[in-house]
Amino acid sequence: MISGQIIKNSIMELKAISKVELFVFDTEGALISGTREGEAIAKDIVRNFALSPADSQVIGASHLLKVMDDDEVAYVLNAVGMADDVYMIGRIAVSQIQNLMVAYKEKFDRNSFFQNLILDNLLLVDVYNRAKKLHIEVTVPRVVILVETSSEKDNGAIELLRGMYSHHAGDYVTAVDERNIILIKSLGVNDGYDCVEQIASTVADMMNMEALLSVRVAYGTIIQELRDVSKSYKEATMALDVGKIFYVEKNVNAYNTLGIGRLIYQLPANLCRIFIDEIFRNVNPHDIDEEILTTVNKFFENSLNVSETSRQLFVHRNTLVYRIEKLEKSTGLDVRTFDDALTFKIAMMVVSYMKYLESVTF
Fold it and tell me: Looking at domain 267-361, which CATH architecture does it have?
């Protein structure tokens, strides 16, 4: 049922136009909302009218009308006034309230539909049947964009997103939990991943800068059928996790650009431990000096170019070589060679993955 405040806003607008007093009761005769103080009519009269087969009833200056929800009486409306058009105003009020109920019920049903869809809780035949009833296009290119806020208190995020993207344009916004929001974005036939990246970046910028909300955004692959929404959602979820583990500096991650991070994310934990023990032997990778790690990462960014790396770090070339040789002494890996550089890079990514597993386990 819609809230009393929504009903009040509706009937107050009608009163401002028509000057007719309007009151809405439940089927037990309790006043839900009115345009002035006082219930205007006795509870037993409202209750008896709700149970009667009549659609309307006139008692003095009061016109009682039923507000129907499908085949059941949801409310009783009382229009009060002496003008000839009181009954007509009452009918308009009934129609408006019934339309509001349909709209809110449809909104709730849409949220329920998409939440069940992404969780694979619907049979294929139910997907198409419910989509038809809810007037949702089946064969439209879509992508799932997942937004994670940094705090459960960021309640304004979903309202901001709904303000940016409307279901009238074929877009749907729903909450997964207190921190995760899903945007199921409808795309044009010629829209590709460049377009999706732009949309995701816009969402991140709006949340992070204008709404002052700290968020991470991830998206799955573009799907052509409504039934594949859950697939794109699972991909977006993986992209979000992989981004937090391996690409911390990015606040937007795409499933189709995760690279080796996606591969490591799907490795068994015991296999990762064996690999780490094999590479680092008696060295604890967490004990490697942070300065050395920073140097090596910058060295990788510059394609193993010693001169450019030393220039960007504002250190002497010999200092850079000393740090690299110090790492080689402890790990046996000379990152100036391609093979050892690749091994060390992957090993440190596996270390990050294991650290993530430990954080979610405990």
Answer: Orthogonal Bundle (1.10)
Instruction: Find, among 65, 8, 57, 61, the residue nearest to 31 by Cα.
Output: 8
Distance CA 94, CA 76 (A): 9
Amino acid at 265: Y
> Where does the chain hold its CATH 3.30.70.270 domain(s)?
137-255
User: Poorest-confidence range of 90-99, 105-114, 169-178, 296-305?
Assistant: 105-114
42: helix, coil or strand? Answer: coil
Handedness of CA 62, 65, 67, 73 (dihedral sign): positive
The tokens describing 104, both together, are 């809110």
Largest Cα separation within the chain, whole Å, is 101
Fold classified for 137-255? Alpha-Beta Plaits (3.30.70)
Tell me the pLDDT tens digit for each residue of 231-245.
Answer: 999 999 999 999 999
Fold of the 4-104 domain: Beta-Lactamase (3.30.450)
Check residue 145 and give its pLDDT: 96
CA-CA distance, 13 to 7, in Å (whole number)?
A: 10
For residues 172, 188, 160, 14, the Cα torsion angle rounded to the nearest 10 degrees is -70
Contact call for residues 20 and 81 (beta carbons, < 8 A): yes
Domain with CATH 1.10.10.2840 in the chain: 267-361
Position 150 scores a pLDDT of 76
* Residue ranges matching CATH 3.30.450.40 in the chain: 4-104
pLDDT at 362 over 60: no
Burial of residue 254, with CB atoms counted within 10 A of its CB: 0-12 exposed, 13-18 middle, 19 or more buried: buried
Element (H, E) at 157: helix 156-164
Alpha carbon of 116 to those of 106, 161, 233, 272, 326: distances in Å? 15, 20, 12, 34, 54
Neighbour count for residue 98 (Cβ, 10 Å): 15
Token digits of residue 186? 């409808």
**Highest mean pLDDT pick, 29-33, 51-55, 172-176, 337-341:** 337-341
State the residue for tokens 């449809």: 106
246: its two tokens: 């391996």
